[in-house]
Design goal:
Elements (H helix, E strand, L loop, with lengths): L1 H17 L2 E6 L10 E4 L4 E4 L5 E3 L9 E4 L6 E3 L1 H6 L3 E4 L9 E2 L7 E2 L7 E4 L1 H7 L4 H6 L5 E3 L7 E4 L2 E2 L4 E4 L2 E2 L21 E8 L3 H4 L6 E7 L11 E11 L4 E11 L3 E12 L2 E2 L3 E2 L7 E6 L2 E6 L5 E2 L4 E15 L2 E12 L2 E2 L7 E2 L2 E2 L1 E6 L3 E12 L7 E19 L4 E22 L3 E22 L5 E4 L5 E18 L2 E17 L11 E20 L2 E12 L3 H5 L2 E4 L2 E3 L8 E14 L3 E20 L7 E4 L2 E26 L4 E15 L5 E3 L7 E9 L3 E10 L19 E2 L5 E2 L3 E13 L2 E8 L4 E2 L13 E9 L1
Parallel strand pairs: 1-7, 14-17, 22-55, 42-46
Antiparallel strand pairs: 1-4, 2-3, 2-5, 5-6, 8-9, 10-16, 11-12, 12-13, 14-15, 16-17, 18-19, 18-56, 19-20, 20-26, 21-25, 23-24, 26-27, 27-32, 28-31, 29-30, 31-33, 32-33, 33-34, 34-35, 35-36, 35-37, 37-38, 38-39, 39-40, 40-43, 41-42, 43-44, 44-46, 45-46, 46-47, 47-48, 47-49, 49-50, 50-53, 51-52, ...
Length: 801
């Protein structure tokens, strides 16, 4: 027996001697901390702790500087020997503010935000959990720095620094989501993402074309979905969560579940969500211009107006959505990491509410106007190899295939013909990214990218009385859009106080389109673009001391014409039709920004960023001619001919201001304010306000936190946009805007007061509740075709394991 005990102790001691699994805990609560970034620049290694606060740091053996970093905690830097002396147990002290976060959106590789000259924010998972956003668009709005426009409940089009839609870029797990039919009007592709399955959300403000190519003019929104976690012991690692939610304003019923399970070399994550939204109810107090007291129904073979029992209900806005994700990870050794991800999202049909507000000759213009199911599927394989060599320390190969499906279905009031235009886009991409550290002060990021989009579009007309179906004009020509690029980005840190970054990218883009002139008498049958774009950036970060950072950056960006720009036929507004223009070229943006962030004695943080962007050869919709005529009959209506043209110079400037204040007794105050002003040149030389520069908006919050409680009282608000400050093209849209005392359209100022709480009832069970728009305001965010929710009660039950 004595020998057995001695043998057990010997085995235990040997195991401890070779144990390199570290545990990171909160110094005050002793709770394990998940997602702590453990970084060794000399080893070029980056490791995250799991939900037990643990991570295997074997790869860091011998390192002289290992950094432990997590938003909300003070940074700790230790050598491997010091960590070993601590028994591989690390405690982090909470702090109030931090100027450093680990971000990936700037270079595709993990970097400290404090070394990046551009403004980058991460939306905290804790804030997302407290706010409980219904969609990924709402998730972006949580930041208080991104404005969200909606034309229907199944929508959400971000506006950043005066730019929107195809002048912003979306990435999912590092894969470009923008495709060749991303339009200049508001888009809703972001709702295909599942906020429950999103692990990290970042927003890079300003140009990102050096890394991401076309479209990254106003900013880059980067979504990292749940990552499979490997077990660092011989037992299986299992974690997950189940969430349910109900919201009263739209009778939302949502359920989500995900589970992670991993062994030493294999790991998996499975995630599924389903949402059910009824028609959205707007508030009581506000403009009557937002009320629509009827809806159209087909009764006894004719369209009839049906009076709504509750005029606050916005009918039709109901829809459902389901998402599924499966990921597999295989790490055969410390040098290789294989990750495959499958994503699928599908909505039901959903009505475009602003089109149902259009009136023609005293009657609704449309009896039907809805989007068909929006489907998105992605297969993504990411291979990372980490082993220093002559040309790289790490290499990442990212291959992706995406399939997009969307359609538009409409029928005029009292018309028996229903039109259906459907589009499919196959998107294929390959990215090759390298990182190489040169000495102790320089790091080079470089790589190459290839993208191919294949666009198919059909149009049909159905007689709803006879069922007869005929072909009709498609929205887009049969076309392909491709892009090939090389880039490099160089980082130089001569000291801990200074960081310099510069980059350059050359991009070649090709578009081939074949037009069917059966239904449209176009003077051409094909269009071809084969052109290049050179972009660059140069920036500096200077930190006079640890609590103070000054950054400045100059960057250029471009947007190549896509299939939507060059080949769309569509009724853009009443009395106007947009036709293809095969003579487009890329538009270029030149951006400069400067930012200052300062922490005062760990109780006050101020953050200010100013920027200016000049957009040359801007692609805008202008009057055009078709076969010498400036108007044609389209859908039975004489319509002015328009086309997208390189016809404008636009400029946008603005300020982003943030303040955070630590108060006694667990209270904290914070506020974000965004001011932007945009202008663009019209054909006659006059100046029009820019459509996508939102009015001044912001969020102010008062937080309270105790051991189990988190409470937040906050206000969202927007300044008025008068009629004269609306974009010229927006001023006639009475279906969107309210009317002022003179009967002119404008966007009134609004505010909402809101309350959210989170209570940790048990270790594995949490309750979230909220009351949004407490004063029941009836308001419509700028440029939106639908009012926001009225008073909204939210309850969410969350189980984690």
């Amino acid at each position: 027996m004595r020998n057995i005990v001695l043998l057990s102790l010997l085995i235990g001691n040997i195991a401890m001697a070779y144990s390199q699994t570290i545990t990171v805990k909160d110094a005050q609560t002793a709770e394990p901390i998940e997602m702590v970034s453990i970084i060794s620049e000399e080893m070029n290694e980056f490791i995250n702790t799991n939900n037990k606060g643990q991570a295997d740091i074997s790869a860091l053996a011998g390192a002289h500087k290992i950094q432990f970093q997590r938003l909300g905690y003070q940074i700790v830097v230790l050598s491997f020997e010091e960590i070993k002396s601590s028994g591989f147990n690390i405690k982090l002290d909470p702090n109030n503010f931090n100027l450093n976060e680990v971000v990936v959106s700037a270079t595709r590789w993990r970097q400290n935000s404090g070394d990046i000259p551009s403004k980058v924010i991460s939306i905290s998972p804790k804030e997302v959990a407290l706010q409980n956003p219904q969609t990924a668009a709402d998730l972006l709005g949580v930041s208080g720095k991104v404005y969200i426009q909606k034309s229907q409940q199944g929508g959400g089009s971000p506006m950043i620094r005066g730019f929107a839609t195809n002048r912003l870029l979306y990435t999912v797990d590092g894969v470009r989501m923008n495709n060749a039919i991303f339009r200049g009007g508001n888009i809703q592709n972001v709702i295909s993402l599942d906020p429950f399955a999103t692990e990290i959300t970042e927003v890079l403000f300003g140009p990102g074309s050096v890394i991401y190519g076309s479209d990254a003019i106003g900013g880059v929104m980067s979504f990292q979905t749940l990552t499979p976690e490997l077990s660092d012991s011989n037992s299986i690692l299992i974690s997950g969560k189940v969430n349910t939610r109900y919201s009263s304003a739209n009778n939302e019923k949502t359920i989500h579940a995900d589970i992670k399970y991993g062994w030493n070399k294999w790991a998996f994550v499975t995630s599924a969500s389903r949402w059910d939204y009824d028609h959205l109810k707007q508030g009581i107090t506000g403009s009557d211009d937002y009320l629509k007291t009827y809806y159209v129904d087909r009764i006894e073979g004719e369209d009839r107006l049906v009076e709504q029992e509750d005029p606050l209900i916005q009918n039709p806005t109901a829809y459902t959505q389901k998402n599924f994700m499966q990921k597999v990870r295989f790490q055969p050794n410390e040098n290789w990491d294989f990750q495959y991800g499958f994503h699928y999202s599908e909505t039901s049909d959903y009505g475009r509410y602003d089109r149902h507000n259009r009136v023609l000759d005293g009657n609704p213009q449309y009896a039907e106007w809805r989007y068909g199911p929006q489907k998105w599927m992605m297969n993504n394989l990411n291979i990372t190899h980490s082993k220093p060599s002559k040309f790289f320390d790490q290499i990442s190969i990212r291959l992706a295939q995406q399939q997009f499906e969307e359609s538009r279905i409409d029928r005029n009031f009292q018309d028996e013909i229903r039109r259906n235009r459907a589009e499919e886009v196959g998107a294929y991409s390959a990215n090759l990214d390298f990182i190489k550290k040169i000495g102790s002060k320089s790091t080079v990021f470089y790589g190459a990218e290839y993208i191919l989009n294949d666009v198919h579009s059909i149009g049909i007309e159905e007689n709803i009385n006879t069922g007869e179906i005929n072909n009709s004009g498609a929205r887009y020509p049969e076309s392909t859009w491709s892009s090939i690029a090389v880039y490099t980005n160089y980082e130089y840190k001569p000291s801990d106080r200074i960081s310099l970054q510069g980059g350059i990218r050359y991009n070649r883009f090709v578009l081939d389109a074949t037009f069917d002139t059966t239904f449209y008498a176009l003077p051409f049958t094909d269009a071809n673009i084969n052109s290049g774009a050179l972009t660059g950036s140069l920036g500096l970060v200077y930190r006079p001391e640890e609590s103070w950072a000054i950054n400045t950056n100059f960057g250029t960006a471009f947007r190549s014409p896509n299939v939507d720009d060059i080949g769309k036929v569509f009724d853009s507004e009443p009395g106007a039709v947009t036709i293809p223009n095969p003579n487009l070229k890329a538009e270029y943006a030149y951006n400069w920004d400067i930012g200052v962030a300062k922490i005062f004695n760990d109780f006050l943080k101020l953050d200010l960023t100013a920027y200016y962007t000049l957009l040359n050869d801007a692609m805008v919709r202008r009057d055009f001619q078709l076969n010498g005529r400036d108007s044609i009959v389209f859908d039975g209506v004489k319509s002015r001919v328009q086309a997208i043209q390189n016809a404008a110079v636009a400029n946008v400037y603005g300020l982003q201001v943030g303040i955070e204040l630590k108060l006694p007794a667990g209270f904290q105050f914070s506020s974000d304010l965004n001011y932007q002003k945009g202008e663009e040149e019209l054909d006659d030389g006059s100046i029009s306000p820019s459509r996508h520069a939102a009015p001044t908006f912001g969020t102010t919050r008062l937080n309270f936190k105790s051991n189990d409680f988190v409470l937040q009282l906050y206000a969202n608000y927007q300044a008025e946009r008068s009629h004269s400050d609306l974009a010229v093209e927006e001023r006639t849209k009475t279906e969107i805007y309210a009317l002022d005392d003179n009967g002119n359209t404008y966007s009134p100022a609004w505010y909402t007061l809101n309350f959210k709480m989170s209570y940790q009832l048990w270790d594995d069970f949490n309750i979230n509740a909220g009351l949004e728009n407490i004063t029941d305001q009836r308001y419509r965010p700028y440029s939106s075709g639908m009012s926001a929710p009225g008073r909204n009660y939210i309850i969410s039950l969350n189980f984690g394991f």
